[in-house]
Amino acid sequence: MPSAPERIYRVSVDVPPAYLDRLMDAIDAAMTPVYPGYRRSFTYYPVTGTWIPLPGSHPFDGRTSDISKSAEIRLEFVVKETELTAVLRAIDTAHPYEEPVVDVTRELAWRSLLTDPSP
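and the corresponding structure tokens:
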């Protein structure tokens, strides 16, 4: 009986451009490669973030009660389920924001979809 494919997750995180390489290095150090033969496999693209820091917050950028807008980079990658917690801790440690935007979504390992039981 074939084994079930390993569970993987897509993680997206917005980061100031100056911190992109630092964050990729921290994430890569916290995980093993998902794609055989490749490390530091990421996709990133420009986005604009907007937020209003509430009283009591300590924003990296912006002032309390003012609308803030900033150029950011959305970084995306996949990680094995067994390493997800370690990667999220690495993001929390390396990211400059008090509350970074992090999205985690379950993914299908695409090669697992190519399994053909017929000879």
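(Above: one complete record from the training split.) Residues 47 and 72 are 5 Å apart (CA to CA).
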